[in-house]
Every structure is written in C-alpha cells, then in structure tokens.
Design brief:
heterodimer, A: 363 residues, alpha/beta, Cytochrome-c3 Hydrogenase, Chain A, domain 2, 3 domains, five-stranded parallel β-sheet, two-stranded antiparallel ribbon, globular, B: 235 residues, mainly alpha, Fumarate Reductase Cytochrome B subunit, 9 helices, disordered N terminus
Chain lengths: 363, 235
C-alpha cells in the first residue's frame, strides 16, 4: 500500500487519462445534481486528497449489489470508480485468497485506523452465535463488528444491509439483522434496493470520497439525492393513475395501452427510489416501463407484504399476520354489526320479559 | 359532576330537560360525521379504484378528483378536530368528556361497571346522567378521539409523501412513517383505522337510537338541539 496516493494518482496508475478523468468529474457533478461548476471542485478534491481505502464485506446476500455496481451504466464511471475506491478487500472481486486476504483486513486496521470506509453488502445472522454465516473460521458478525469498530463510516449496500431483505423475512430463521441494528456507534448510510441502481451506488461512493462526508440523508438514513421521491412521483404512467385508468389483468386492453399498474400490485406509490428517473441498464428500462409493477424492493418489509401482484398488502403485525387491512377491518365492522343486531334482539326480549313481570324495570 | 349519577338525577329532577351539548359541539359532531363518511368512501376508492374510464388520460381526472375530495375532507376533518379541542378548553364541562377519562374517580369506575352490567342485561336500572355515561365516554375516547388523532397524523404523513420530502406535512408528520415500518405499513394502518372508526359508528348509532327508544333520556335529539330530555315515569 505504501505512501498514500491521491485519487488522481491512483486513477492515472490504472490507465485513466486526464481527459477521461475530467469527463468523469463533469459526469459525477451532473449525476449528483450539483451543477457544472462543481466539476472543478470534484477534480480538485480528487487531485489533492489521499485515496480512502474501502473494505467491502459480504454477509448473507446474493451479490446482486456487486453485480449491479460493476455494471454501472457509464463504462467510464465504473472504470474510474473501481480504481478510485481501492477495493483493498472484497471477497468477490479481490485477487487475494485465504490467509493472505484476511491479512489485508488487519493491515487496513493498522494503517488506516478510523480512516477507511466499510461497505457492507448483505447482513449478519445472529442466531446460533452467528453460525449461519461463517467466513475465515469466524462468524461474519464478529468480522463485521471488528471492522466497524475501526472504520470511519459504513455504507449499507442494498436492502439486505439496509433493512434485512429476504433472509430477514418472516420467520427469519437465522435472525438476520440489518447493519444499523448491529452496529450502533458509527455513521451509516443506507443505499437500499435489491439491488440498488448502479449509478446510485457509484454516485453515493463518489460523493463520499470527494467531499469526505455523507450526502444529505433522509429520516431513515438514505441519501436524499436518490431517495427523496417515490417511483410513483416520476412515473411516466402517472397520468393514467390520476385519470383512473388501471390495468386489471396482464393481458387486457389497459395493459396494451400502458395504463397504470397500481391494481396489479405496483408499489411505486410507497417506494422511494430513483428507478423512474435513472432507470436500469444504462437507462434502457425499468420494471414499470417493461409492463410490470414495482415490487417495492428498496422498502423495508417488502418480502412480508404478501403478493407482489395485489394492491392490498399484509399488515405484518410482528411479521406474522398475513391479512390485509380491509379483511381485518371488514371482520371488525361485521362483528360490530352482528353484535349490534344480537344486542338489539336481546334488548327486545329483555323488555318483553320485564313487562311480563309488571314493570320490574322501575325498581 | 357529570359523572355522578346522583347529581345528574337531582339536576334533572326538577327541570326534566337540561342543556348539555353547546352549539359548537353539535356542529362539530356533524362536520366530523360527514367528513368521516366522505373520507371513508373516497379512501376506499383510493385503495380499490373504480373501473377505468375510456379514452386518453388527458381527458380524465377520476382518481385525481377522488383523491382531491379525500384531501379536502381531510382538511375539514382535521381543522374541525382542532377547533373541537379548542372548545374543550372554553366550553362547558360536557365538552371535555371525550378528551379526558376521570380514571382517578372511584365513582366513575363504579359507573363504568354499572353500565357494562346494564348492557349485559345484568341490571335493569339505567343511568340518567346528563353527559356521556362512563362506558360511552370510554368508547368515545378510544374509538373516536384517539382514532381521529391517529387518522389525522397517519393521513398527513401519507399526504406528505405526495407533497414531497421537506414539505410541511412531511416535516410535521413524516416521522410517523418509519415508526409504523414504512409507507406501505402506514397506509395499511390508516386503512384499518377507517374500519375501526366505522365499527364505532355502527355501535354508536345503535346505542344512541336504543337509548332513545328504550331508555329514559333523549340521546338522538340531544346532539341536534343540545337539550337532554328526561322521560322519568317515576317522578
């Protein structure tokens, strides 16, 4: 690792030309919504700042975040970002293996104590002392805790690290926990999605490395620049929603005309993400554009809400009740109506009885 | 004290009619009722939209209008409730009944037990208080006052999602969404809240009509005219 290089030097070593570097700075400024004058700021920061190492840990997950990350829409972005973030450790991408790889973690702690970024993909299971995720002879949760105690900040990649996702779905047999419930003493930025959009991931990490701080976060710790609007807000089918035109079946006339997918269970109205703006695969498409509702993959509990194809989702009381508000409510109101009718009948009977006794009600 | 059976009887003894619900309380009752019914119907239609109108989306605004009616009624519902809270401070003693349960009073608890027994046909004697009886008061507190408050905060939290992050609704009520899990969870609880309030409406109307028919005091006309009449056959 030697003397700390600047980001720019590291990029040049990886064969990134100055021209590409400046292009990248402009692209990033635009991508982060910062305006053209920030291209210079970003360039200056990258030229003068020592490169921050990133340790990329994998817990219980499917690696879709990594897959998304290395497919960042603009090849320039992925090249530059990959060289920039100095993935000193990433189970999936690094060349080292075995003891050699695990040594990198200790070396990073030694050299960059309190100064490296911990990127967490997936989450730790806590049941059976964390035995459900075992790496290098140790439960993953121990590795996570050790690295977290020495890092500067944590990026929780994807819905696993942010919320828990599928492995934490009810009944959560391994007691998989999102990062913020295990590590409570470090700043955590959540980048949810299953996976998150590639451009969102590179955008977040570039911002953090360039400005040495988190972008502005919302109440739940997500970067506002990408998660401040619902997919519904920028959906190109929104006009059909407001008009009240809905797809009723996937093969009906409405589906052919591109009506709103709300009745097909689209979770766009409650899902905060940038899919309807940035889209996927270099802006090629996104679920709704391809005729399928949003699953709400970047929202908490999306696995426990019942069918992806029903507009009515489960109440999930304690993660267990598989019933919708209308079902429970209908039973409550029905019970009230039956109770009232029964009580009315009983009142009549009681009154008749009492009058038989000759005005016993006036005792 | 309104929660005192004996004094209620005494006061009523001579006059056979007593002014209980002041005009703002009565007015609010009906504003609350009709805004709730509008909210329930439009809310149901938002969760279960009507069949699609035919034609280009530019010539329709069906869902938009349903939502707008929902939002306008919601403002009426919320502002009405705010005014009602104000009236609890300046109104007569009965105006505070739905906001406060006198849990510290032994007599109130005995009254509650008495009412439960009465409605279970275990005692034939009916209470003749002026305001709400302890059982009605308890039901009203939990299923109307608390639920109204719950519907307003969850409703504005969801409204804040539409207005956007940083909007007044988001700043004031947005915190409720992570508390209830997420947007979908908040939406579900808001929806269930409607059913709980509807359940209250059913029981409330039944109880009022029943008391009017079977009981010895008016309970339907009192919320229209404000006067509680007593039909005391014994006096």
């Amino acid at each position: 690792m030697g003397i700390q290089k600047t980001f720019y030097e590291a990029m040049r070593e990886h064969g990134v030309t100055r021209r590409s570097f400046l292009k990248f700075c402009s692209l990033t400024a635009a991508g982060l919504g910062l305006g053209p004058e920030f291209a210079g700021t970003i360039a200056h920061a990258l030229e003068t700042k020592p490169r921050t190492p990133v340790i990329w840990l994998h817990g219980l997950e499917c690696t879709c975040c990594s897959e998304s990350f290395i497919r960042s829409g603009h090849p320039l972005t992925s090249d530059v970002v990959l060289s920039m973030i100095s993935l000193d450790y990433d189970d999936t991408l690094m060349a080292a293996a075995g003891h050699q790889a695990e040594e990198i973690l200790e070396q990073t702690i030694e050299k960059y104590d309190g100064n490296f970024i911990l990127a967490c993909e997936g989450n730790p299971p806590l049941n059976e002392d964390g035995m459900y995720c075992f790496q290098g002879g140790k439960p993953y949760v121990e590795k996570l805790r050790r690295m977290a105690s020495h890092c500067k900040a944590i990026i929780a990649w994807g819905s696993c690290a942010s919320w828990g996702c599928v492995q934490a779905a009810h009944p959560n047999p391994t007691r998989a926990m999102p990062i913020h419930k295990v590590i409570t003493d470090k700043p955590i930025i959540k980048v949810p999605g299953c996976p998150p959009i590639a451009e969102v991931m590179t955008g977040v990490i570039t911002y953090m490395l360039t400005f040495d701080r988190f972008p502005e976060l919302d109440r739940q710790g997500r970067p506002k620049m990408f998660y401040s609007q619902r997919n519904h807000d920028k959906c190109y089918r929104r006009a059909h929603f407001d008009a009240g035109q809905f797809v009723e079946r996937f093969d009906d006339e409405g589906a052919r005309k591109g009506y709103c997918l709300y009745k097909m269970g689209c979770k766009g109205p409650t899902t905060y993400n940038a899919c309807s703006t940035i889209e996927w695969n270099e802006g090629l498409s996104w679920p709704v554009k391809s005729g399928h509702g949003c699953l709400g993959c970047s929202e908490d509990n999306f696995w426990d809400r019942g069918s992806f194809y029903s507009p009515e989702t489960n109440l999930t009381v304690g993660g267990g009740i598989e019933s919708t508000a209308d079902k429970v409510g209908g039973i409550l109101a029905g019970a009230a109506a039956i109770g009232v009718a029964a009580h009315a009948a009983a009142s009549v009977i009681s009154k008749v009885k009492n009058s038989d006794k000759g005005g016993a009600s006036h005792d | 004290m309104n929660s005192n059976v004996a004094s209620g009887l005494r006061e009523a003894g001579g006059k056979r009619a007593e002014y209980v619900f002041e005009a703002p309380v009565r007015l609010w009752h009906w504003v609350h009722t009709f805004s709730f019914l509008t909210l329930a119907v439009t809310g149901y239609l938002i969760a279960h939209p009507l069949p699609s109108p035919i034609g280009e989306p530019s010539s329709h605004f069906l869902m938009g209008n349903i939502r707008m009616v929902h939002f306008i009624s919601a403002y009426v519902f919320a502002v009405g409730f705010a005014v009602r809270i104000y009236w609890a401070f300046v109104g007569n003693k009965h105006s505070r009944e739905i906001f406060m349960l006198p849990l510290w009073r032994g007599r109130w608890w005995r009254g509650l037990l008495h009412e439960v027994k009465y409605y279970l046909f275990l005692t034939p004697r009916e209470d003749k208080r002026l305001g709400h009886n302890p059982l009605a008061q308890t039901a009203m507190f939990f299923f109307n006052t608390v639920m109204t408050f719950f519907m307003i905060i969850t409703g504005f939290a969801l409204y804040g999602q539409g207005l956007g992050l940083g909007s007044w609704a988001d700043r004031m009520f947005g915190w409720i969404i992570p508390m209830l899990g997420d947007g979908e969870g908040t939406r579900n609880w808001h929806q269930l809240g409607m059913w709980v309030m509807l359940m209250f409406v059913i029981v409330h109307i039944y109880m009022a009509v029943r008391a009017d028919m079977v009981g010895k005091r008016s309970s339907v006309s009192v919320i229209i005219g404000g006067w509680r009449m007593f039909r005391d056959d014994d006096s």
